[in-house]
């Protein structure tokens, strides 16, 4: 690898996969360079563009004005871009706001890819087609556990992925999706099996779908590999993998989160090379290793006056009500202890930037940027009064019992006013809708649902009485601390939840780098 390998990033989101690839070095310089990243969402695209701007500078050479922007000293991103017109123009050209999947725009996207590659055929295609259609939780809510709706266009967005494989023929590709893809069916037919068939033979899949052969490049197909399971051969010498072999459990690879995703590695058939696999880390990383050094902040209060004194008074006065009646004695004692000793955090509700000690005991060189000297996107959202009580109860319960409470563990006076509350309590249907992230374990999967409310992502410290901030969620996803998320806070959460953990992507990129070293 004498020069950076170009990357085309489809369905890029805020850039988790691309960040991982961009962080791999070869003799002190980037081994990969994002040539084009494509994302349709306005706010994710803004984040993607800003990160592309950062990557226009060599590692360790990010300009001071970038830090002024994320700290709020430069109020508008356009002011930042105006200071570096060459780099900002390159970033805006690299990060393309575009909706993939529109057949009428195939020629446009193909031209943008060709222009971005500048004649270089040795590139990597990466990306994760939107996964809402395959999500197990989403399918349950839509009552599509057995079969997906074949008229849902999201089911087939992966077709644009294999169309680009057929047209542009990269030597290697990486495709990511949710674990639910393995069990998804349309009219009793396995979606995953069809995905594998189509990715192995993208030209045939394209011809079958469109009934025409307007692809100018060769008809070479791909071999599909697991990144975690060594290759096994059948009696005929063919590679053999089971669907479960493509699941990567992030907690086994240094990510402080039990995020399980299907990730496929494809190598073009004419290339006589086999990939290695990811190297498992040691013991799972607890969330305490990555969030305990962040400044303490309190939750906000919605539908009432919000300030620190009101927040403190609401919790203290709860001791004089019936809220804490009929609960476990040890849990109740811990609640009273927390309230009696409650102090307002120095950082109050946090801010878009908080100056503070950035020392970290885990992956410090990955997370920490000493020039930042603080934390961005670390601001709490507001909750109604009864949710503050629920969060306090849940965090204290977890401290005492060593597990997150089910809804049936809550005192009845704290049951939410939901129509299906009886089923939730008696049948345990979504009984964990108030979930504490346990301090000494990896977090549960951070998903885009974190943008809806904080109920599944309660902070384990009862003295803060809140859900996770965007920065805490980003830490669990292994985004570096200088990675700034644009847009309203709800959209920031959405971006973080939808992303591939960059540190996992970094390790995948290492496998791909070794492939390119063998090939070229």
Assign the CATH class of the largest domain. Answer: Alpha Beta
Helix content: 25-40%
Q: Taking Cα atoms only, what radius of gyration do you get, to the nearest Å? A: 24 Å
* Beta-strand proportion: 5-15%
Please, how many domains?
Answer: 2
**CATH architecture descriptor name of the largest domain:** 3-Layer(aba) Sandwich
Shape: globular
Question: Which parts are unreliable, with pLDDT below 50 for 5 consecutive residues or more?
Answer: 139-144
Q: CA-to-CA gap between the ends?
A: 7 Å
Largest sheet: 8 strands, mixed
- The number of distinct β-strands equals 18
CATH superfamily of the largest domain: Vaccinia Virus protein VP39
3D architecture notes:
This protein is an alpha/beta fold. It has two domains: 5-284 and 500-519, Rossmann fold (3-Layer(aba) Sandwich); 288-489, no CATH class. It contains 19 helices and 18 strands. The protein has helices at 16-22, 42-55, 64-70, 77-83, 85-94, 106-117, 136-141, 158-168, 191-200, 202-210, 288-291, 308-317, 329-340, 364-367, 385-401, 421-426, 470-476, 489-498, 502-519, and strands at residues 5-10, 25-26, 29-30, 32-39, 95-97, 124-127, 172-178, 185-186, 189-190, 222-225, 232-233, 239-240, 247-249, 260-268, 300-301, 350-355, 374-379, 382-383. Strands 1, 4, 5, 6, 7, 10, 13 and 14 form an eight-stranded mixed sheet that branches. A two-stranded antiparallel sheet has the order 2-3. Strands 8-9 form a two-stranded antiparallel sheet. A hairpin with a 5-residue loop joins strand 11 and strand 12.
């Amino acid at each position: 690898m004498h020069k950076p390998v170009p990357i085309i990033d489809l369905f890029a989101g805020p850039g988790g996969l691309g960040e991982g690839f961009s962080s791999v070095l070869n003799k002190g310089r980037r081994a990969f360079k994002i040539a084009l990243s494509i994302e349709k969402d306005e706010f994710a695209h803004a984040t993607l563009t800003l990160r592309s701007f950062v990557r226009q500078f060599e590692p360790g050479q990010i300009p001071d004005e970038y830090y002024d922007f994320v700290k709020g000293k430069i109020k508008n991103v356009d002011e930042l871009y105006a200071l570096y017109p060459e780099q900002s123009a390159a970033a805006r050209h690299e990060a393309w706001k575009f909706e993939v999947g529109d057949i009428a725009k195939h020629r446009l996207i193909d031209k943008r890819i060709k222009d971005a590659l500048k004649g270089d055929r040795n590139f990597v295609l990466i990306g994760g087609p939107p996964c809402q259609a395959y999500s197990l939780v989403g399918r349950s809510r839509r009552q599509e556990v057995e079969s997906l709706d074949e008229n849902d266009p999201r089911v087939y967005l992966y077709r644009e992925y294999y169309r680009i494989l057929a047209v542009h023929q990269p030597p290697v590709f990486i495709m990511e999706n949710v674990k639910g893809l393995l069990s998804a069916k349309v009219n009793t037919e396995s979606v995953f099996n069809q995905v594998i068939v189509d990715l192995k033979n993208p030209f045939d899949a394209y011809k079958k779908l469109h009934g025409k052969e307007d692809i100018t490049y060769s008809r070479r197909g791909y071999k599909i590999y697991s990144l975690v399971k060594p290759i096994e051969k059948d009696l005929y010498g063919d590679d053999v993998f089971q669907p479960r072999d493509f699941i990567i459990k992030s907690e086994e690879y240094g990510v402080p989160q039990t995020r399980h995703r299907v990730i496929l590695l494809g190598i073009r058939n004419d290339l006589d090379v086999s990939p290695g696999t990811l190297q498992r880390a040691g013991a799972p990383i607890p969330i305490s290793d990555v969030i305990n050094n962040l400044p303490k902040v309190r939750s906000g209060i919605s539908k009432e006056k919000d300030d620190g004194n009101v927040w403190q008074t609401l919790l203290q006065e709860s001791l004089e009500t019936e809220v804490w009646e009929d609960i476990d004695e040890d849990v109740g004692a811990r609640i009273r202890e927390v309230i009696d000793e409650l102090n307002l955090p120095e950082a109050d509700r946090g801010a878009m930037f908080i100056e503070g000690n950035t020392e970290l005991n885990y992956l410090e060189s990955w997370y920490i940027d000493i020039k930042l000297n603080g934390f961005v996107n670390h601001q709490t959202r507001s909750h109604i009064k009864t949710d503050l009580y629920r969060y306090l109860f849940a965090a204290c319960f977890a401290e005492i019992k060593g597990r997150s409470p089910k809804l049936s563990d809550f005192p009845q006076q704290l049951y939410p006013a939901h129509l299906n509350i009886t089923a939730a309590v008696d049948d345990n249907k979504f009984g964990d809708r108030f979930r504490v992230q346990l301090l000494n374990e990896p977090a549960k999967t951070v998903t885009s649902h974190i943008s809806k409310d904080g109920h599944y992502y309660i902070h384990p410290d009862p003295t803060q009485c809140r859900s996770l901030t965007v920065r805490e969620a980003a830490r669990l996803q292994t985004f570096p601390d200088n990675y700034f998320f644009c847009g309203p806070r709800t959209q920031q959460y959405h971006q973080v939840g939808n992303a591939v953990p960059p540190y996992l992507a970094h390790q995948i990129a290492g496998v791909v780098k070794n492939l390119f070293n063998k090939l070229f």
